[in-house]
What we know:
alpha/beta; Rossmann fold; 9 helices; 50% helix
Amino acid sequence: MGVALVTGASAGLGREFAVQLAGRGHDLVVVARDRPRLETLADELRARYAVRVEVLVADLVDRADLARVAERLTDRERPVDLLVNNAGFGSRRGFVRNDLAEEEAAVDLMVRAPMVLSHAAAGGMRERGRGAVLNVSSVASFAVMGHYSAVKSYLTVLSEALATELAPHGVTVTAVCPGFTHTEFHQRAEMDMTALPRALWLDAPRVVSDALEAVARGQVVVVPSLAYKGLVALLRVAPRRVTRRVAGSLAGRRRPGDRGRAPRAH
């Protein structure tokens, strides 16, 4: 089944990607900053699925660490067949009130890192005539929910552009754009999500399953759940002033406290 490299694999969607990929028979390279969590995950997957799991501890905001992960992706003797760019984090504060250093870290982690890693992986995949890149974007990429939307918009558009460029060479690129999902993401950012309607919550296993099925089909953009598909369809055709109004309402539900600094998610 080949080798999959998953960033942000220590928790949340990244961990679920690792579990489901191992269940499908993929050997893995799991990447995150938290060595104990990665080692525990690796032991679990080896025992449960009898797959090979390589632990690669790296902080993707650090350029030297990012270069080490990129180097792993360009290793011709140990090719990676699927790259999952998943690592990310959220913030409770608006762009202006937040620390600039955190906003720069968001760009490094969710823009620069996927760009560098996709470039590293896609070169070898193109030469081999096969492979896939899966970018974990967000429904926010179609909206205007602060700097996070801007960051995720880049990732969705990059995915579409790369998919067009690489399609003639047997390589697929997919962006999965989930909405609010039950993971540690919001807890780690200390966001109070109690005002969000239950109907807008997704489960991580379903999001990951939908994403992997989309990769298998060669689908470029996938939005899990009928509710969010409808929302994205509306956002695509609605006047931007309406989009801004709806996004502002959702942002108000998402960050009622607006205090402090959110920690990194992976």
